[in-house]
Amino acid sequence: MKNATLPALLLTLGLAAAPLATLAQATVVQTPYKHPKALFDIYLDHPAKMGAALYWLRSFVNPLLEAPYSLFNEDMSVVVVLHGTELVTVARKNEAQYEDVVQRMRFYADHGVKFKVCGLALKDFGYTPAELQPFVEVTPSAMTELVHWQNQGYGLITPLVTDKRLSIEDIR
After folding, report:
1. CATH number of the domain that 118 lies in?
2. CA distance 66 to 58
């Protein structure tokens, strides 16, 4: 008796011919982004997490590089401030160890993303500007740099990188 009520309801609503999965779907929108300005504050507890942090950058930049937006360097402005353990990934002597993330940062730098390193953290890690990748700029302090760019109207994004415990397949 209970099973008979669902088909009757569907017939009443005129939905019997349509499978339930096709009744409704999400709407795709094309938000009109104009001159987006983003500031990424990256402070990680382990340099191995830099790859995951760069996915946040990818999620911001890549859609803007592609159609329908097709924005270029002059159409968007992105600043990344590094001031945690991830700083070691931009030391030239560590390039082989962090080759994947260095290549990804170099790709984004070539597309206009500015990578900045905290000068105070640089000293704490015992590096000099001469030891860093050429696409990096050294600033006096991460904190003053973050405030500066926010005062210029940049939206602050702080990537949250957690330890992955489950695969996507495990949670579907």
Report:
1. 3.40.1260.10
2. 12
